[in-house]
Design a protein that fits this description.
rRNA (guanine-N7-)-methyltransferase activity, rRNA processing, Rossmann fold, binds S-adenosylmethionine, SAM-dependent_MTases_sf, rRNA_ssu_MeTfrase_G, 236 residues, cytoplasm
Amino acid sequence: MTACEMMEALGLPANEEAARKLTEYNAMVIAMSKKVNLTGIKDVDESLIKNVYDSLTVYDPKYFPAKGRVLDLGTGAGFPGVPLAILRPDMQFLLVDSIQKKLTFIEDACADLGIKNVKCLHIRAEEGGRRRKTREAFDVVTARAVKAMPIIAEWSLPFVAVGGVFAAMKGPGADEEMKTAGRILRELHGTLEEKKELTLPGGDRRTILYIRKTAPCPKTYPRKVGIAEKKPVLGE
Ligand SMILES: C[S@@+](CC[C@H](N)C(=O)[O-])C[C@H]1O[C@@H](n2cnc3c(N)ncnc32)[C@H](O)[C@@H]1O
């Protein structure tokens, strides 16, 4: 499958420049992964599906407002942040990770490809969610394959502006995870608005949970570094 065919399959408007950038970014990720540990996938075609196509499945114009701000938490090699930024050059993207070398790769690759709407921030989620500049400042927060729902909800929702959306990209176990995340979602004023289930070309199943933030998060969240992982707030 080419990037053009991929965009068509996802119902996205045909755009040759975007398709070229998606293809080149994917190739850069795979080339770099042979030197440093960026993604477990080492094959270009497999990565185009499992990284790039998968990243774009979270896109839905109703959640991504014109000229809005998106934060991708635990972006790793830039997924889903970079493919979304290529698709939506009018929006500003902040890609967050606790590992600097991954962000250095993203910054260099975006500069090479002329992707101007991506900035990177080296910070732990728990610290970024408490900073005045980044707290409750984003229309959309995405997180793919970062942590289980009770943890990633605590890390993500403080970044989301009231009225905005946290989009959690999950595998087929999302329903089980949601059962343990009811309490933290209520405390942080996140309400499940939509559950999108899909199958990637090749057969892998995915679930995307769109969680709307309806009021500001209590100032006690996120808790200090490491606490959400050690003592997640659990409960239906
Ligand atoms: C499994 S990788 C997923 C990367 C990417 N989202 C993807 O789907 O390919 C999880 C990423 O989350 C980052 N991460 C883990 N804990 C974090 C924290 N507390 N704050 C920020 N990033 C964190 C890791 O460094 C890693 O790059």
